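re: ur question from earlier - yeah i can do the single chain one, its not a big deal. heres the input i used so u can compare w yours
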Amino acid sequence: MEDNKSDVEFGFATVTGKGLVFNNKLYSNAQMIKSQWFDLAQRTGSWTIPVLYNPEVEGHLVLLDVGGLEVASSIEEQQVIDPVILESYYSALNSLKERMEIKNRK
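and the output i got, formated as tokens:
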């Protein structure tokens, strides 16, 4: 029997305020953003979720969801981002979220 390197494996990823972390990489998808997973993790703390992945194909995870399967893609670039620029980006993003929440309350 031939060894098949494209087998899917099971693991756990952590939902954090910065994204879904798996093997030291960040992942995301539209459903996680829409459901505000990252905002919730930032406010209440991180949690783990089961994922399926192929070790030979980096950049994608399969999430097990009640409604079916979801794919999350890596959101990291291979380049190093200046921490000052990254912090500025997160501050601007949080400010925008706060303004949207205030507008939605009115």
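DSSP finds three helices and six strands in the chain. not sure if urs matches, ping me
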